[in-house]
Amino acid sequence: MSxxxxxxFCGGAFDxxxxxxxxxxxxxxxxxxxxRDGFKPELKAxxxxxxxxxxxxxxxxxxxxxxxxxxxxxxxxxxxxTCDEKELYITTNGSRFNAQFVAEVLDGVTGIxxxxxxxxxxxxxxxxxxxxxxxxxxLAVVECRRRGIRVRLNCNVIRQHVYDGVAILRYIxxxxxxxxxxxxxxxLKNDVDRFRSLAGMGLDARFGLxxxxxxxxxxxxxxxxxxxxxxxxxxGLQTTMRPKPVSPHAPHDKRVLYYDGQFYDGWQTxxxx
Length: 273
Fold this sequence. Notes:
The protein is an alpha/beta fold. It starts with 16 loop residues before the first strand and ends in a 9-residue tail after the last strand. The chain is about 25% helix and about 20% strand.
């Protein structure tokens, strides 16, 4: 039985995190989205129920996901009710990421992850369907800095967009100018046509990127031009572009709290239900 690297999600790392799916609604159009055909409970629990479950949970770090979590109508109340007891993070497509929204709704969160997949925002809009403005983005980051909120950009490496070491450097320089704390570059999951291996971008020797992330590690950390950078690779359990591990070890339980107020043992997909 093959055992995953202990620094991987499936190897038991990040056990102190609780993922919370706040909504299945999204205003984006990313066609690789793994939640498009995912589990969508009919029941919607009150935000007070979610707050109680979050506060009682053993995890000290909580991340709000979706769908697009900023569309959750009671986000402000949920943040206010839990931010004193938990570290709160949120991943967003950036559609509502502006200084006013940060001040009025997200004050109290620890970090905001903004998914932007091309440093040229017009090209990002073609990928995601979300129109972003550079000045609005920079002012939102300034507001986050003022409130002590860390901002990370999430970028999927995609053919014809951020697809090699040169493009990664251009993205990093743009992100640094924008004022963010850090960047995560991630390979696409379950997308063959546009999959691009991080191990083939000339960064291997510096950061230990590899073609067997199940064994050698799927999360690598480093600094490039003064910016903290994380690399997230997909193993053969998440992409057909790499061989599936032989007799993989039973994965570490990954609890996800859905908006119906129920905990599940991972992200529920239509294939699993």
